[in-house]
Design goal:
373 residues, alpha/beta, three-stranded antiparallel beta sheet, globular
Length: 373
């Protein structure tokens, strides 16, 4: 009888989903990894116009429409000063597919993939699915990933390491010096650096820099998406960029697994990337205000929390039983160990809710803390 592959048996349903299902219908949800803002109107109109014109009815190029890839390259040039050839971009079904095809194209069975712990849940799962061996590494006290820790973890069996800044679940932003070091490590050790930059525009302190800027070889590929920057999680549009030879290998995986990103979403993404960026600035300003409200509230409760400098997550240290107590009282937060072994003793809190809801949730957390402390 046909059973199941070892790869899939090593992967379980995300612990985040388990938390959602355990919470009541009326719970305040501080577990969602998506902005609570609408997709910008000009992005929606881009899709609507394409649908009405019959431009969303057919497959696009496997890499995506030329105009979308030019828009992506244009943002790299304007925002980062990075020269990206539109031919070296693949539009994907969200950042998740971009990560998937990057790992599938570069990792052989048994090869190691180094990634942050706590870190985004997909890194370990997608490594298993690619047949690789996950190699999580702990973070600094400020929840950034130290280049020296990554370098120490690299062996002859390492195929890739993942950098995520701004980071999910921590909200940490790597320094430019760190990013330069990650590029050096990729160059000197001849291993691939996969830079997950999905939250690249949601930065409150410091600045986002990409290892792409610093690499002297083609050992860096960058993943990003419209999902967080433009509040387009449901549109499923991301991309990956790198050297032509790497893109052509990733295209082989994408071509047979996905064919192309959804045509209507590509037109929406193009409009988002080329249109007014004011909605992004307004969203980031609102997230920063919420972050400050959350940090003040956590400090008042007595919870220590490294200051998140980007994304829309905070990861405070919490006492044993705190997460369960909070969930039982009707507020969803995610236990830190859902993001890796070193996340134990933390909780991830998403502040993608309005300030009033956040304050209400903080009152619940205060009561929960008193119950377990």
């Amino acid at each position: 009888m046909t059973e199941f592959s070892r790869r899939v048996e090593q992967v379980s349903i995300s612990g985040i989903r388990e938390v959602f299902e355990a919470a009541g219908e009326d719970a305040i949800n501080l577990g969602l990894g998506q902005p609570d803002f609408p997709t910008p109107e000009h992005a929606r109109e881009g899709a609507i116009e394409a649908i009405r014109a019959g431009e969303a009815d057919e497959y696009t190029s496997n890499k995506g429409t030329e105009s979308l890839r030019e828009a992506i390259a244009g943002r790299y040039a304007e925002d980062r000063g990075i020269d990206v050839d539109p031919n070296d971009v693949i539009a994907t079904a969200g950042g998740s597919e971009a990560l998937h095809i990057a790992l599938e194209a570069h990792v052989d069975p048994g090869e190691e993939v180094v990634f942050p712990d706590p870190g985004f849940v997909s890194y370990e799962a997608l490594t298993h699915i690619a047949g690789g061996e996950p190699k999580p590494v702990p973070l600094r006290d400020d929840l950034t990933m130290a280049p020296e820790t990554v370098e120490e973890a690299i062996t002859d069996d390492t195929a890739a390491f993942v950098v995520n800044s701004p980071a999910n679940p921590t909200g940490a932003v790597q320094s430019p010096e760190d990013m330069r070091e990650f590029a050096r490590i990729a160059d000197e050790h001849d291993v691939l650096c996969i830079s997950d930059e999905v939250y690249e525009h949601i930065v409150f302190e410091g600045e986002h820099r990409s290892p792409l800027e610093f690499a002297e070889t083609d050992n860096v590929v960058a993943v990003s998406a419209c999902s967080k920057t433009y509040s387009m999680t449901g549109w499923r549009l991301g991309w990956v960029t790198g050297s032509n030879r790497r893109i052509e290998r990733m295209l082989r995986v994408h071509q047979y697994g996905q064919a192309c990103a959804t045509a209507a979403a590509q037109h929406a993404g193009e409009a988002a990337l080329t249109g007014p960026q004011d909605p992004v600035d307004e969203m980031v300003e609102a997230f920063e205000q919420r972050r400050d409200v959350l940090l003040d509230g956590l400090a008042d409760i007595g919870l220590e929390c490294p200051t998140p400098k980007g994304a829309f997550y905070a990861m405070p240290k919490v006492p044993e039983g705190f997460v369960d107590e909070v969930i039982d009282r009707g507020v969803v937060v995610v236990p830190g160990d859902a993001f890796g072994e070193h996340g134990e003793g933390y909780a991830r809190i998403s502040y993608a809710v309005n300030v009033e809801t956040l304050k209400e949730a903080l009152e619940v957390m205060d009561d929960a803390y008193d119950a377990v402390a």
